[in-house]
Amino acid sequence: MNTAMSTEPDQIRNQVAALLAELPDIAPESVAAGHLDDIDIDDVARRLERAHDVLVQALESVEKD
User: Fold this and answer.
1) Beta carbons within 10 angstroms of residue 5's beta carbon
2) Distance CA 55, CA 49 (A)
C-alpha cells in the first residue's frame, strides 16, 4: 500500500474514477438484457476493494495531518 497518500481531493477523485472506469457495465439495462455472463465478479470485487482502499488511505492521511 502507498503510505505517502495524497490528500489532494482532485488526485483522490481521479484515482477512484480510474479504478471505477475499469468496471464492467452492470447497469439495470445490461442486467435485463442478460449481458452479465462474461463478468468476472472476483475482478469487480478487487477493483472495488482497491477504490475503497484509496478512500480509506486518504481519510487516514487527513487524520494524521
Assistant:
1) 20
2) 10
Question: Model-level pTM?
Answer: 0.71
| pLDDT tens sequence for the chain (65 residues) | 444 567 789 999 999 999 999 888 777 777 667 667 778 889 889 999 999 999 999 998 887 76
Quote the CA–CA distance of 9 and 17 in Å, as a whole number.
12
Strands (E), the chain: none
Phi-psi region of 41 (alpha: psi -120 to 50; beta: other; left: phi over 0): alpha
- How many angstroms separate the CA atoms of 61 and 18, rounded? 20
